[in-house]
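Hi L., both proteins are below.
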Amino acid sequence: MNPVSDVLPSNSEAQVIRAKLHAWFLSHGRDLPWRRLPSPYAVLVSEFMLQQTQVATVIPYFERWMLRFPTVEALANAAESDVLQHWQGLGYYSRARNLHAAAKVVVAQFGAELPSDPALLIKLPGVGAYTAGAIASFAFDRPAAAVDANIARVLARLGDLRLAVDSTAGAAALWEHARGLLPEVSGGREHTSALMELGALVCTSKRPQCLVCPIHEHCHTREPETLPFKAPRKGSVRLDEDAAWIVKNGALLLEQQTGRRAGGLWKLPPLQTRPDTEPVFQTVYPFTHHRITLRVFEENPIGSAAPNQRWFPLPEVLEGAALTAPHRRALESLLAR
């Protein structure tokens, strides 16, 4: 028995659900900057920023980004260091690199016009099935399925899905449900926005407001807070990271990172051996399934800087270097002292 197919809405019920979502969204949809003028480029930027980041956090970053890189050509022609500088604080910097790379592809292969076909969008760097569907829906009003965390929660409860939504079978069931609710020709922008908004404002992970839900009578679960099911999380692995605070002639020594995740970003130089002294700064931050304790120790300058290191004048370091979020917090705290 397919845990979703028995409760998929019929075509007529899907039409009723869409109508109710439409009416609710007109009254309750939030005024978000990328909704005011849903240009394809603005939607592209917002979708990359919203991956693993909450709306409230994204809004100021989005607005600053659009001032600095107002068009896809402006982004494509920008230096990576400038892109990373304007992304810092959002984390997951591979998103910034992929967005930069996607802009270059759009300019080079599509004449700076973002394609509307999800089959073409999904070929862009950093664009998966959800992002392709979201861009097709929001930017071009196409009836394309898009399943993010909010929509997954709504659909899992609507169909009383008893599979883990992060499993292959569970994800397939959600996408089947999402496609079954789509309008036929157009209207994808409002439909997808309404589902997403319902998950964000009403069908929340904790204490869902079922009594005010516009599609409550179509919902098949009687235990909404237990859904969606997810696979058990891996236990956190604890790691230590020791770094050096080295100042000489009013300048701070930083080291540029390499690699796929953090390449191009700056951080305090790592220490191979922890000193006997007390750290001048300490914090704990998450990274994937790790919890990392960052300790910063004051060190005296010895020898010359390595090829991947550079001295930054203290008054300019926060503005002049694209920093990882934990090291930026360390610098802000230590400079404030």
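That was the first. Here is the second:
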Amino acid sequence: MSALEMSTKHLLGIKYITREDIDLIFSTAENFKEVINRPIKKVPSLRDITIANLFFENSTRTRISFELAEKRLSADVVNFSASSSSVKKGETLLDTVNNILSMKVDMIVMRHPAPGAHAFLANHIDVNIINAGDGTHEHPTQALLDAFSMREKLGDLKGKKVVIVGDILHSRVALSNIFCLKKLGAEVMVCGPPTLIPKHIKMLGVEVSYNIREALEWCDVANVLRIQLERQDIKYIPSLREYSSYFGIDLELLNSLKKDIIIMHPGPINRGVELSGDVADSEHSIILDQVENGVAIRMAVLYLLASKRNVIKA
């Protein structure tokens, strides 16, 4: 296998790729970041490639980011929304995808509420699949863009300390970030209410804190997640107001720390809950850098997986 080639034909999760894959994605993304900051932001790399974006859950940032990445690479793009599809009439996932593939689609970007849906498809169809989120399992491109953004600010992540704050139990972002950061040699802590921390999370090699000040004093980077009320079938916290009083981060708290730290958030932000508006907009925050880097990272992933099909244009 070439050093400039991914070890897998899919991106199903960070768990399934190597440290070398991550380094390759980052170096490719650096090149594409230069492209998207030029006056002419398109390259012909995926010309004549058709990519279907299959979103069985609502999405704004991830969907727009992938679509922009695909169009910057000159791919043909087909957007699919489950809310207006035959899925509502009882059609199975495999039938839906096979019908789309019969129209000569080359790659699939999919978000699905069922954990493992992408792995299931990978065993049944012969196109590249990119996981844009599967239930509470993984969200690999978010973890890649998060780590890429950290690396831009901190350099090598080996030995750096990253705390992930919030609803760890329901977060696919948290799991993918843990896998990615551990592969890059970072130290990882999770912080949140006991009800929102998975029981056996220490088995992944992370530390656990239930005290936000303690966690922020420890870390170099705080990646702050929102409370995912839409994924909660019971109440895990008394109220958002109480959560905010114990785990919310405001500028007064940040300024009282003994050092400067980086604040990140995968979005959407619930301002005044997990982060105050003045923190989200402060010099501590690299949230908008994450958004910009998301397009470059997704361009890199699409490009590298397409190259496995020997269809890259010169």
